[in-house]
Design a protein that fits this description.
Blueprint (H helix, E strand, L loop, with lengths): L1 E5 L3 H11 L6 E6 L2 H11 L3 E5 L7 H7 L5 E6 L5 H6 L4 E4 L4 H14 L18 E6 L2 E6 L3 E7 L2 E6 L5 E2 L3 H5 L7 E3 L4 E4 L5 E4 L5 E5 L3 E5 L1 H10 L3
Helix pairs in contact: 2-3
């Protein structure tokens, strides 16, 4: 398991290294001292898991996650317990309060192993299944980790995009064009300048008066497909 440590305190990083030394299945591939450094190194090193401090100079751990195109698994580490609820709302693997106990560290690593479909105590040559790709969304004080497969609609609002999943529809600071570049074109269809639709959530397709199509999604969401894009949609959806 490739792990990265992100904390502005040298002693805190040293303590994490000491605790992780008891877990030979863990490879520490890098360390970062602030959010900017962390963003840069994650893009290059692509760790499976990051240990992430919440409060750092120049940007919080939540700010770091919001800036990533794709977030790895996250275990928050901090001395302040008031962040626990927010961390669990974003579906973090765990929240370790400093000083970190060895037993809590072991439990957090086991949780990460189970999420990836293998147990730490049983090494295997089998390749673990790839985790579902996720978005990290920060809208005001609220944050979410969202699997792309759970997003039914992306809707452009200027330089922002509204993301529809479950009962939520927060805004994220990404343009629709930026998001489209990282989406699977077999699953997500660019219906118009304003909308990208998850094909798995299309419940009804009807012709409209302009020669295009109207797509109906859960919660009575209706998305119009232009005449120009309708042929592409029919080919993709095998209609």
């Amino acid at each position: 398991m490739r792990v990265m440590l992100i904390d502005d305190e040298r002693l805190a990083r040293a303590e994490l290294r000491r605790l992780l030394a008891a877990h030979p299945e863990v490879e520490i591939v890098g360390e970062a001292v602030n959010a900017e450094d962390g963003i840069r190194q994650i893009a290059v090193l692509k760790p499976d898991l990051i240990f992430l401090d919440v409060q750092m100079p120049g940007g919080s751990g939540f700010d770091l996650l919001a800036a990533l195109d794709e977030a790895p698994e996250v275990i928050f580490t901090t001395a302040f317990d008031q962040y626990a609820l927010q961390a669990f709302e974003v579906n973090a693997l765990d929240y370790l309060q400093k000083p970190i106990q060895a037993a809590r560290m072991a439990a957090a690593l086991q949780r990460c192993a189970l999420r990836h479909g293998h147990a730490l105590e049983h090494k295997s040559s089998a390749v673990a299944p790839t985790a579902a790709k996720k978005l990290f969304i920060k809208d005001g004080e609220r944050c979410w980790f969202v699997s792309l497969q759970d997003v039914r609609l992306f809707e452009s609002e200027g330089n922002y995009t509204r993301v529809y999943f479950d009962q939520h529809k927060p805004l994220m600071l990404r343009s629709l064009n930026q998001l489209e570049e990282r989406l699977d074109p077999q699953s997500f269809f660019r219906a118009s300048r304003r909308h990208i639709v998850n094909l798995d959530y299309v419940g009804e397709v009807t012709p409209n008066d302009t020669g295009g199509l109207d797509l109906t999604l859960p919660d009575a969401l209706r998305v119009e497909v232009s005449r120009r894009r309708a042929a592409q949609f029919k080919l993709l959806a095998s209609l």
